[in-house]
């Protein structure tokens, strides 16, 4: 059985968990924050999530884990199109959403968790990167009803969990960046209205107290 290592408050953990649930694959969860030496044998950089495979091998990085699940279980509710160009477009949206939305918003996490003001230069830089990402999303995404058309793909799953960090940035910078992505409102409601999404959201909420207690103990936040 596959083991998913990490914690449900992590949006990257939830990306891989959503894929596992979507594909109907048997897996168990090893809930941990990845902060000890033993975990480095599983995830060399200590990052969450990581997976231990059925044969005992280990993988880390969410995109790597997702690609492995697609390639190892190609007949289990595939999330990439068969056509090479269509598949590349899915990866394009995934990469842009990660680099220009998630990672930009992630820079504000320390200020959000410590309840401190964002320095002006940081706010300006993050805003500029988010604006570039939003322009790209508006150029690439159709939301009819899914990100790239009629079929659910990994682009949908990635974007859903990327937006949790963008939402945090919106609160810190007092600007609704998500609303600037055209047509995203109905898509967000649709993506939230599934048993998988409800389970993941509930698990994330339940993990919140433990996660913030960990931050307080480890970092004093």
Overview of the structural elements:
The longest helix has 25 residues, at 195-219. The protein is an alpha+beta fold and 221 residues long. It has a four-stranded mixed beta sheet with strand order 2-1-3-4, covered by helices on one side. Helix content is 59%, strand content 7%. The protein has helices at 11-23, 37-40, 62-72, 84-106, 109-113, 120-140, 154-173, 184-192, 195-219, and strands at 2-6, 27-31, 50-52, 58-60. It has nine helices and four strands. The protein starts with a strand and ends with a helix. The chain folds into two domains: 2-78, Glutaredoxin (3-Layer(aba) Sandwich); 84-182, Up-down Bundle (Glutathione S-transferase Yfyf (Class Pi), Chain A, domain 2), CATH 1.20.1050.10.
Radius of gyration: 17 Å
Low-confidence stretches: none
Major pleated sheet: 4 strands, mixed
The amount of beta strand, in percent, is: 5-15%
CATH architecture of the largest domain: Up-down Bundle
Find the count of extended strands (DSSP E, 2+ residues): 4
The third-level CATH topology of the largest domain is Glutathione S-transferase Yfyf (Class Pi), Chain A, domain 2
Average pLDDT figure: 96
User: Judging from the principal axes of the Cα atoms, what is the shape?
Assistant: globular
End-to-end separation: 36 Å
Q: How many discrete structural domains? A: 2
- The secondary structure category is alpha+beta
The total count of helices amounts to 9
Task: Provide the succession of SSEs.
Answer: EHEHEEHHHHHHH
What is the highest CATH level, the class of the largest domain? Mainly Alpha
What is the percent of helical residues? 55-70%
Order of strands in the sheet with the most strands? 2-1-3-4
